[in-house]
Structure formats: C-alpha cells, structure tokens
Amino acid sequence: MTHYQNILVAIDGSKNAEKAFTEAVALAKANNSKLYLAWIIDEASLSTSSFAVSKILKEEQSKAKMVLADLVEQARNAGIENVEEILEVGEPKTYITQTIPKNYELDLIVAGATGKGSLTREKVGSTIQYIVNHAPCTVLMVK
Fold it and tell me: Which distant-in-sequence residues (6+ apart) come within 8 Å of 18 by Cβ?
C-alpha cells in the first residue's frame, strides 16, 4: 500500500466535496499525512460587471473562509494534526493540477466526482476529468 505524506482535498461547497473531505481525512489519519484543504474560486464563474465581480468575490471568499475554518477544525478533531487551508481565485483545474502540486509536493489529490459547477460541465469540461488526466500524482475520485 502506498504511503501518502501530502494529501490535497478539493473543496467547493458541494455534497461530493464533503464526501471527498471525509475520505481525505480518513486517508490522512491512516497515513499520518499533512492534509491540504483547497478552495479555488473560479474566476470564470464571476459576473462580467466589475462591481458585481467584486461583490460576488467577497461573498465567495467569506463563505469559503467559513467552510474551510470549519473543515480544519473537523480534521483536527478527527486526529489530523497537520492541516493547512488554501484559498485562491483563478482557474481551479490549473491550481489543482499544476500550482498546488508544485508548491506542496502532493502525493494524492482527493476530489468529488462532481462539484457545484456540474451544470456547466458540458460547456467547459469536467474538472475531475481534467484533474485525473493532468495531475502529477495519484487522484482519488469520490462519489
């Protein structure tokens, strides 16, 4: 069995992200791993109005910070000592497959089969499909 030292779980507020989080916590505990919780706010999903973008972005950041703080506490209560949150604005696919793995030497990425952006999947492509095809490490897709 592979030993994972650095595990990333993609968080976006969806039910499948919650399931991915639960799985990632179990894996991190079993492997005594560092757990990274990443919420990447998709800049493409923000409005075209600069005022609306700023307002929506602040709301999304506020929500993400609250959810991430709660998840960090849950992970620590489950016995994960080394937990770090990552909150960025940009293209989730790029951050999850390139930027974060490069900066954090990931062994495993855990993500839900679908996220809150699943309605736009046919237009822009599935994020999890992209992650599976482009990640530099093992990927666990959780349903």
Answer: 112
Q: Which contacts (CB < 8 Å, 24+ apart) does range 74-81 have?
A: 74/21, 74/25, 75/25, 75/28, 75/35, 75/37, 78/25, 78/29, 79/29, 80/25, 80/28, 80/29, 80/33, 80/35
Residue 50 banded pLDDT, cuts 50, 70, 90: low
Backbone angles phi, psi at 61, to 5 degrees: -65, -40
Instruction: Report how far residue 46's alpha carbon sits from residue 53's, in angstroms, rounded to the nearest whole number.
Output: 6
User: Do the bridges between strand 108-112 and strand 138-142 make them parallel or antiparallel, or are there none, so unpaired?
Assistant: parallel
* Torsion sign (Cα): 23, 93, 12, 113: negative
Are 101 and 69 a contacting pair, CB within 8 Å?
Answer: no
Whether the per-residue pLDDT at 123 is higher than 80: the answer is no
CA distance 58 to 123: 26
* Identity of residue 57: L
